[in-house]
Q: What sequence folds into this?
DNA sequence: TAAATATATGAATAAATGTTCATATATAAG
DNA sequence: CTTATATATGAACATTTATTCATATATTTA
């Protein structure tokens, strides 16, 4: 018999079953961490703005900075985060480095987010 | 003629065109802010874990706390954020309050995130 | 080789965020 | 009406994070 402190809502059976289901379906600790890490990247309006620009064209750092009216340094720092999470890729052309979207998950994720906030 | 400081990458024409496109397609400031706000909610592994539990069942606060091995207070604080962003809804039943997913965007967004991190 | 341009990055600072602790609210039971 | 149970919440603290500033790296041009 369980101790009182370990019980909850007086619903012991449901609790046991829930534990089993969660144990079966909950992703590994590292995957949960990586998922949260990925969504953190989308959780900043500067990075969102960068992504919206890259939806339209391949753009160099200095154009991004000008279009978004931010310093080159701030943009570079954010591009590093986007790069590390494989949301964008880069390509050198002379002195400039051009950035573009890495894949289409970015578009899907942002599209779903927009749908959600539009539905109130 | 533009001043030198305002130029960039010596590619003036492309820059002008980019400005126009971005001006046409970039969402309003408030939408960008709301989007970032929404993704911030997904950017915490505790909230992600809560959502994974709610993928499987409607669960009361105290069961969530036990299953995730966290304090009731911590869970309640996070549920408030999930509620405020309409990712979960709640229903009272006696002394307990049961939480469930608000809609299916949550599943889609998380599924896309998982796909992204799995593709390296 | 030296100067100019484009980008990256480390350190510092200010702001945002998650958890804990104490406590408030709400419902049910005695 | 008093006590117990379930949940919510404000304040405090520690951690994370975005921007700025100064500077480093890399490429092109003179």
A:
């Amino acid at each position: 018999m369980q101790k009182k402190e370990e019980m909850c809502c007086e619903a012991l059976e449901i609790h046991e079953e829930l534990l089993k289901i969660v144990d079966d379906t909950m992703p590994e600790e590292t995957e949960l961490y990586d998922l949260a890490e990925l969504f953190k990247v989308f959780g900043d309006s500067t990075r969102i703005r960068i992504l919206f620009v890259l939806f339209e064209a391949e753009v160099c750092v200095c154009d991004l900075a000008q279009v978004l009216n931010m310093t080159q340094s701030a943009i570079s720092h954010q591009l590093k985060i986007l790069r590390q999470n494989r949301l964008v890729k880069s390509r050198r052309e002379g002195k400039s480095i051009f950035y573009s979207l890495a894949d289409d998950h970015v578009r899907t994720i942002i599209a779903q987010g927009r749908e959600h906030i539009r539905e109130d």
In short: Chain B touches chain A through 59 residues (CB under 8 Å). Helices of chain B lie at 12-25, 29-42, 45-56, 61-67, 72-84, 105-118.
